[in-house]
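User: Could you check the structure of this?
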Amino acid sequence: VARHLATWMMYEDAIRVAQAKTRAARFARIRGETRAGDAVIEVTDYLKPDLDEIWGILPHRLVAPFARWAERRWPHGRPTLGQHVRTTTVSGYLRVWFLARLRVLRPVSWRAHVEHGRIDRWLEGVTTALARDEALACELAQLARLVKGYGDVRRRLTALFDTGLALALRAAETEGRSGAGFAVSTALTERFRTLVLEGPEGETHAAALAADASARLAAGDLQGVGTLVTRKTVN
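Assistant: Sure, the predicted structure tokens are below.
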């Protein structure tokens, strides 16, 4: 859990990207790789932030209404603002440098609010699972591996993470009432995670697995969920 949490807490937003792009070590590395010597070099950074990344650095209380509106307006992706910034010019460097100076806003930013909210739900889920079964708790902890990427990729994967977490807890609750252990919910969570990590096609299969398993759980068909996981694993 600690390793996954540490990785998650190091998420990159526009401020962290700006910090990385304005470090002196970066320009020294570029000069060394290009073997430019004392010659003048030009560095152009191609940036394409979307709306979430733009207002993600602003205080949550300020932009939360706009974020909720954008989620409804563009549920499958946000508009982007493409730009080419020459960070070896004074104006270009200052633009990125100023963005990096906004790091004081990170703790109260909209992005921090979203990430910490999801982290809290994950930790609560792991704690709940641990009270029931250690193997199940380990699988819930492993779900944090799904939270990665940027922009649309991260939105897609975090949505699948939310689905997987809810599915695992629901399956565990149903299985707990049967008093027969947590083998099915553990296997279901593992299978879901494995599919998502296989890539876009696997993500589609994972979503289908979650929908099918949820329907069976709603019907109280725990045995059917077990059969579903076994069949999917064999296939």
